Amino acid sequence: RGPRAAEQDLAGRHVVISAGGTREPLDPVRYLGNRSSGKQGYALARTAVARGARVTLVAGNTELPDPAGVDVIRIGTARQLHEAVVKAAAEADAVVMAAAVADFRPAAYTTGKIKKVEGQEPEPVALVRNPDILAEVSAERARRGQVVVGFAAETDDVLANGRAKLARKGCDLLVVNEVGEHKAFGSAENEAVILAADGSETPVPYGPKEDLAETVWDLVVPRLADTER
Ligand code: CTP
Ligand code: CA
C-alpha cells in the first residue's frame, strides 16, 4: 500500500490478531458455527506485516491461505482460541480480536453420532457460556502499555451499543460495524466507526477491508507504549 505502509511504524512490534469463526462440536459430525469469513482479520495481518510488525494470527475456521510472513496458529473452538490468544498475548504489544467467538457451546459433547428415535421428538441442546477473551485480555494487560482492540457487529442503536460494549470489555478501541446486507460477513468490503476509550470516534467509509485495517493500525500506533524494542 501507499505511504503509510512504507513508514514501517510497526517495526519491532509484536501484534496478535484473531480471525475467523469458532466451531463448537455437538457430536462427531456436527457443530455450532457462524458465518465469519476471516477476511478482516487476514487483512489486519497482511497490513501489519507491511508496516513491519511480527504477526501472530490465531485463525478459526476460514478457507483463506496463510498470509506470507505470518505465524499462523489454527484453532477450532472458543476455548482453544482463548488458550492460544492468552498465551500469545503474554509477549504482544497489541492484541486485535477480529474473530467471531461463539458465545455459547453445547454443554455436553456426545461421543457417538446423535440418532433419531422413531416416534420421539429430539432432546433440546443445552448450552453454556464460553470465556470472554477480549474482556480477559483487556483486564490483564500481560505487557505494560499493551493496546487491545475489539470488533462488534451491532444493529439498532449502533453507536450507543458500541460505547456500552467498549466500556464493558475494557479495551482501548472498538471497531463497530452496522450489520446489514452486503456488509461485514463474507464480503470484501466493510464500513465502520472506530470508538476509542478516550472518547474519540473515527468513521471509516465503505471500502476494502484493507483500508479499515490500515485505519486500525493508524489508531493503534500512537497508543503503543514507548518501550524498548
Ligand atoms: N469476544 C471474545 N470472547 C467472547 C465473545 C466475544 O473475545 N466469548 C470478542 C470478539 O472477538 C469481539 C468482541 O469480543 O472482538 C465483541 O464481540 P461481540 O460478540 O460483539 O460481544 P459480546 O460481548 O459477545 O456481546 P453480544 O451479546 O452482543 O454478542
Ligand atoms: Ca457475541
Automatic annotation (TrEMBL):
Domain DNA/pantothenate metabolism flavoprotein C-terminal: 10-220
Tree of life domain: Bacteria
Enzyme Commission number(s): 4.1.1.36, 6.3.2.5
Cofactor note: Binds 1 FMN per subunit.
Keywords of this entry: Decarboxylase, Flavoprotein, FMN, Ligase, Lyase, Magnesium, Metal-binding, Multifunctional enzyme
Cofactors that this protein relies on: Mg(2+); FMN
Pathway assigned to this chain's UniProt record: Cofactor biosynthesis; coenzyme A biosynthesis; CoA from (R)-pantothenate: step 2/5; Cofactor biosynthesis; coenzyme A biosynthesis; CoA from (R)-pantothenate: step 3/5
Catalysis performed (reactions): N-[(R)-4-phosphopantothenoyl]-L-cysteine + H(+) = (R)-4'-phosphopantetheine + CO2; (R)-4'-phosphopantothenate + L-cysteine + CTP = N-[(R)-4-phosphopantothenoyl]-L-cysteine + CMP + diphosphate + H(+)
Residues binding CTP, per UniProt: 103, 113, 131-134, 151, 165, 169
The keyword Nucleus appears for this protein: no
Region feature Phosphopantothenate--cysteine ligase, mapped onto this chain: 15-229
Family: In the C-terminal section; belongs to the PPC synthetase family.
Role this protein plays: Catalyzes two steps in the biosynthesis of coenzyme A. In the first step cysteine is conjugated to 4'-phosphopantothenate to form 4-phosphopantothenoylcysteine, in the latter compound is decarboxylated to form 4'-phosphopantotheine.
Protein name (Swiss-Prot/TrEMBL): Coenzyme A biosynthesis bifunctional protein CoaBC
Organism of derivation: Streptomyces kronopolitis
Species lineage: Bacteria, Bacillati, Actinomycetota, Actinomycetes, Kitasatosporales
